[in-house]
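Interim report to the steering committee. The following record documents the input for Ligase-associated DNA damage response exonuclease (340 residues).
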Amino acid sequence: MKSPLLKFTDKGIYCEKADVYLDPWKPVKKAIITHGHADHSRWGNEQYITHPRNIPIISQRLGDIKTTGFEWGETFTVNNVKFSLHPAGHIIGASQVRVEHKGEVWVFTGDYKTEDDGISTPYEPVNCHTFITECTFGLPAFKWLPQKEVLADINKWWLENKKEGKTSILFGYSLGKAQRLLKYLDTEIGTIFTHGAIENMTEVLRPMVSFPPTKLVTKETTKKELLGNIVLAPPSAHGSPWIRKMVPYVTASASGWMTFRGARRRRAIDKGFVLSDHCDWQGLLSSIEATGAEKVICTHGYSDIFSRYLREQGYDARTEATQYEGEQGEMETSKSVSES
């Protein structure tokens, strides 16, 4: 029986013919990394291959690592296997990985979204025979509104809170979501303050994207300075001592999970904005169709439900277990020096 071009192992997605892993979750010699979130780019690999825009991101997170960068569509060959990176649209520097050997083509998406957010290189479908897709939001209930509408609602929410003399605290992951929010916040309403984790990552990304000015929340920042303004913070800051100085405040979270009211209640969030860096149900389906793939492998998320639906549509679809966690995996748990 012919061995698959890519197989799922206890270390990650493995191309045996090239001895290369894609987004491995255990240390390996050579790793191709799709993007900078912690569940896809882990410490301990001997070599990291990724898009040049992702190099400063993973270097900020992982420290002194050996990296090699390849531009979109640039082919590199390892042991007669051809690889290339293609835009995933997920966050800045996020790639899909195309793998080709003897005319057979596989594509691994990592995480991706189809809506152009204005800061990430927009997603591009890549023709292939086998497509490995995430299913973070692989249910029909997930249907995103256009980004423009959601961001307008966020600015309206901030303005209303300012009129009531309250500080607005908006939670979003420090890499990707926070910068997407920051890019479109209306500075005519007030000042944008940031948590240290978001400020540090935004400084890494400023050479790539024009962002509004921000002010870091420090021990010296007073309640008076914050009143009426907005604070961007990672989800891990919610309920922490760091947030106490901001009373009176109103909280909100920007996430695909805000589709469900129960998710907002469980997180004790005042307001939920449905904004995700992943595909919704229709985005997943249209992406798969655009690849022309006959075989689809569904990974993290609602993989069982989604793969069953694909089989009903005539695809050769199955699931594989990984250690990727989708939008849940982007939550930060580490403390920043500015939190206390």
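The helical segments are 55-62, 147-163, 177-184, 196-205, 223-226, 261-266, 281-291, 303-312. The committee is asked to note this result when reviewing the revised timeline.
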